[in-house]
Hints:
By secondary structure, the first copy, chain A, is an alpha+beta fold. Chain A is about 35% helix and about 25% strand.
Amino acid sequence: xxGEERKKVSSIxxxxxxxxxxxxxGPFKGxxxxxxxxxxxxxxxxxxxxxxxxxxxxxxxxxxxxxxxRLLSMxxxxxxxxxxxxxxxxxxxxxxxxxxxxxxxxxxxxxxxxFSKWISSWxxxxxxxxxxxxxxxxxxxxxxxxxxxxxxxxxxxxVHATYEEGVEQAFDALKAYExxxxxxxxxxxxxxxxxxxxxxxxxxxxMSCEALLLDGNxxxxxxxxxxxxxxxxxxxxxxxDKHGEKDYAxxxxxxxxxxxxxxMFLTHMDEKGLVIPPKVAPIQAIIVPIGSHKNEEVLKTAExxxxxxNNADIRTRIDNREQSPGWKFNDSELKGIPIRLEVGPxxxxxxxxxxxxxxTGDKSCVPIEQLVINIxxxxxxxxxxxxxxxQIFTENNSHKVEDYEEFKKIIKEKRGFIWADWCxxxxxxETIKTETKATTRCIPFEDKSSFNTGKCIRxxxxxxxxxxxxxxx
Amino acid sequence: xxGEERKKVSSIxxxxxxxxxxxxxGPFKGxxxxxxxxxxxxxxxxxxxxxxxxxxxxxxxxxxxxxxxRLLSMxxxxxxxxxxxxxxxxxxxxxxxxxxxxxxxxxxxxxxxxFSKWISSWxxxxxxxxxxxxxxxxxxxxxxxxxxxxxxxxxxxxVHATYEEGVEQAFDALKAYExxxxxxxxxxxxxxxxxxxxxxxxxxxxMSCEALLLDGNxxxxxxxxxxxxxxxxxxxxxxxDKHGEKDYAxxxxxxxxxxxxxxMFLTHMDEKGLVIPPKVAPIQAIIVPIGSHKNEEVLKTAExxxxxxNNADIRTRIDNREQSPGWKFNDSELKGIPIRLEVGPxxxxxxxxxxxxxxTGDKSCVPIEQLVINIxxxxxxxxxxxxxxxQIFTENNSHKVEDYEEFKKIIKEKRGFIWADWCxxxxxxETIKTETKATTRCIPFEDKSSFNTGKCIRxxxxxxxxxxxxxxx
Lengths: 473, 473
């Protein structure tokens, strides 16, 4: 993909996103308004993820949105990582505050101050909580949904008595995210470990789900961190074990945000507009009555179909706005509604309706009596087709590279994922970043051959890892 | 109720609330952490209200949490009402901001700036949206749940083509809140119009649900505002009507917050602890195994009962912590769990279990086979009993007063709701507030005799209204 084509992908997305009323630019740099069409998809994300989170025995709760500077500064790496992005409250209730407060960029420091108070014995463990909220991170290169100065997310935080439990919990959360992306959003993701340089500020190690977007850039679309005892030692989150010994607790944190909406849009869109996976589509089937203002029978039939489909839990609407059928067809394609039904006077006579699927454009005539079962099957088919299509795109844009000149050329000309061996030194990682702007996205778990298979792409010394490299959002 | 007794109610509530792990004091003045037990009740509030809001054809969306000063200042009354309570962000991303941003205290000004962009024709109306979010209002006299510097809420905002539609929408929202309080939280509320002095800053008129808490103070527990064209004129929310004429739109806004949690706690608690209405109780039935560590049959029976009840959608848990049964009984009473089941070795033999209801303390022996139907009926009975009890309390603490000296005496010694005639002048209202600290809570809709029935309690002139007066949170 050329630079020209990549830029075109971004600008086309922005055009679609505004026309389809997904967002509007917000009142401060990098902020956006999430409009109802996009927000209703986020509600579907929430419903699915909240059930997964509760299944992991996490309880939801809510911590304040403002964090005293003193708490934020307690973990050194953490504050260094976040301080350039903070929004600071300096005045409250008409007076200058004695201590400045940051609008939360994430809640580790605040929560762990309290965990320290709440936990004293092994009986209090594990403590597993989750928060749905907004966070603010000042964004210098904003892009709607993908990089915004405020976003919505869930942040899970758990505290355990052993290292092993922490390892398991962090991995469980990551796997839950992976399932969500693959099965619900139809996004093929790679899961793996972040490098030291790319990990979360303050974690022992971080893991992520990485997706490849249509413009050839990578997106870190969810993360899960094993915090080890890094925070528990600083915040004194300790407990008395069964033998009466004191120990610091083991912690994890993991999050998924409205960035995932952007990831989904930029995985499935095509030349006609957005393409929304059926499982999260607010409208799964739209009925367009043809010549309806002249024909009462058409409207009656449309209403009957809508009722039948809604009763079968297919999210259906009738588009009875004033515009022409052609305008409505384009609009439903722009919005990425999975299935369109066209009902005209002739259809009423023959008892059939024309069915158009958004992903392939295929058209068919279906007897109205068989619509429910047809559409149920079709929605499943569209869902899996979108996944396959995205998987082929990812494969076609993944490159196994053994030569650094080739690496540079691909990053410059095509982008995509590059699998290339690495010695593991931060020096090589930094040099590559400086020279190509590519970073290690993650060291994938799935590739068994990722250790000791060759030479570092940069220095030629023995390689210890095979990460995915890419330019990223 | 004496001053002594009233203070006791507050301090007992704070004791219960901390012991039952409803909250912890937050990191800045007036903030609280909403802990899982309270938050899970809020989730039930949300589920119920969100369905009501969607039933009113409102779409959820999300606006940024920071509002530029310029927008906040556009409606004069509005900014005067809120400016003393603002938290101001002055720095972002390490730099001083050119324009200060307020953490949203409410979102009218921000939303309506956008509504103006989104609306141009009658075809765009009605626009009906809702936002679930946090808001910050610096609180000088904080009290957990009832008056907090940050709280969670929903804010509904609608835009209409006619005055009448606005009137209807504002009233529909108010009635939805009233149903919620009466039917779900078992709180008897009065609904009515706020006085000019007490209305929302910038509204045409405001309406509220008012509850009487156990300490004799009133609580404005939800509000609905008809904004008329006040904001639409300032923010240029105008539209072209069907005849091509331009007109300003008619708007409403309405909100309900985590304050309602506090209202619920302080309506139903008793001398043993919290009392949670069954419809929102996170745990509806708790099983306490007696001598369980000695008897495997007891644990098996408890598990079987739990499974049966959960299958019948009764939210059930087994308390198998290490503590003694007596400790667990107290704990379940403190937490206000509607039903407690005690299962011991003898119960296993006889196939029965001891059932204790939290509201009355009544105990009964119930055959295990009949538990489901028994508990289903009991939960309904507890729900309606709590409502009746609260209604009797409200009646017993409502006073029809015709003499100002009596008014002052009741406010000072007993508090409660006072129904007293009023001429309608702000002067009398303010004098009464200065002299007694009582304010008009609302002018109830239900009392048909509220107009022209007598003389103003303060000045003796002809009365035009019969408001409820009270000391309030």
